[in-house]
């Protein structure tokens, strides 16, 4: 289960040598309290609970989040084309609304409050909207209030994986594969929903696929496994002896 404490860890740094001014310096073993910045907590929450694409999350405005209904509305995306950042429709040209748990909304409220304080503190340096127009600001921003770069989430995701595997994982079995990508969180969302027997049409709606057939094709293996489990359940219920279903 994801909690705020999940993003705080005491990290043990082993003794090591670094170079300073061209000379080796021995660093003694020390412990550091590491925590994940709130904006990244919210970003990864949204990625996992909605299965949204990176460009869709980076494009969110505060007006896209309904704090009273616990919903997030996805209607646009951000991408880099020939070195230029562009804003466009979602991949399927469709909009969708996802309901999220309270922990996501709580993190969003806290982040918005932090940004409102930053807006007042930075004065003319703030590049986002102010006052009644604050809702038009991007949820995920740089320090000056402008939209976060589309590549930043991928960089942060890799950094978190490295920190976990190097300093938190107890052994190699707990390490996260280096080739895991941010987009894999989307596949994680899909596999969990399918494993919990959510209707394919509902899974497709959450992921923002244009057609249910797209979802069925991409995640055919997981649906196949669910079908096998269904066969076993029905056989056990209707036959006198427990059924043996080939799970290859």
Describe it.
The chain folds into two domains: 36-177, hpI Integrase, Chain A, CATH 1.10.443; 181-237, no CATH class. 41% of the residues lie in helices and 17% in strands. The protein has helices spanning 38-50, 54-58, 102-122, 152-168, 184-195, 200-207, 212-218, 220-238; strands at 8-13, 16-20, 23-27, 30-35, 65-66, 71-74, 77-81, 84-88, 96-99. Strands 5-6-9 form a three-stranded antiparallel sheet, with no helix packed on it. Strands 1-4 form a two-stranded antiparallel sheet. A two-stranded antiparallel ribbon has the order 2-3. Strand 2 (16-20) and strand 3 form a beta hairpin. The two termini are 30 Å apart.
Structural class assignment: alpha+beta
Amino-to-carboxy terminus distance? 30 Å
Q: How many domains comprise the coordinates?
A: 2
What value does the average pLDDT take?
83
| CATH class descriptor of the largest domain | Mainly Alpha
Give the C-alpha Rg.
22 Å
Count of DSSP H/I helices: 8
Q: Assign the CATH superfamily of the largest domain.
A: Intergrase catalytic core
Strand order of the largest sheet: 5-6-9
> What helical percentage do the residues reach?
40-55%
Major beta sheet, specifics? 3 strands, antiparallel
Give helix and strand order, one letter per element, not per position.
EEEEHHEEEEEHHHHHH
Task: Work out the strand percent.
Answer: 15-25%
Low-confidence stretches: none
What is the fold named in CATH at topology level of the largest domain? hpI Integrase, Chain A
Structure summary, number of beta strands = 9
User: In CATH terms, what is the architecture of the largest domain?
Assistant: Orthogonal Bundle
Shape from CA axes?
globular
């Amino acid at each position: 289960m994801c909690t705020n404490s999940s993003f705080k860890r005491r990290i043990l740094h082993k003794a090591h040598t670094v170079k300073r001014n061209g000379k080796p310096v021995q660093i003694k073993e020390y412990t550091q309290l590491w925590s994940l910045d709130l904006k990244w907590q919210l970003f990864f929450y949204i990625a996992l609970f909605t299965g949204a694409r990176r460009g869709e999350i980076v494009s969110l405005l505060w007006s896209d989040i309904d704090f009273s209904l616990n919903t997030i509305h996805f209607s646009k995306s951000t991408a880099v084309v020939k070195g230029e950042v562009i804003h466009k429709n979602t991949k399927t040209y469709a909009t969708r609304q996802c309901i999220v748990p309270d922990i996501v909304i709580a993190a969003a409220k806290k982040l918005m409050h932090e940004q409102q304080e930053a807006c007042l503190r930075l004065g003319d340096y703030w590049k986002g909207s102010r006052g009644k127009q604050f809702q038009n600001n991007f949820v995920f921003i740089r320090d000056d209030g402008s939209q976060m770069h589309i590549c930043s989430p991928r960089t942060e995701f890799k950094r978190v994986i490295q920190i976990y595997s190097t300093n938190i994982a107890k052994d190699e079995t707990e390490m996260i594969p280096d080739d895991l990508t941010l987009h894999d969180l989307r596949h994680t969302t899909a596999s969990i929903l399918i494993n919990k027997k959510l209707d394919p049409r509902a899974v497709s709606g959450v992921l923002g696929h244009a057609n249910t057939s797209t979802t069925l094709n991409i995640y055919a293996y997981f649906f196949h496994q669910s079908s096998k489990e269904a066969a076993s359940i029905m056989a056990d219920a209707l036959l006198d002896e427990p059924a043996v279903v080939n799970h290859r």
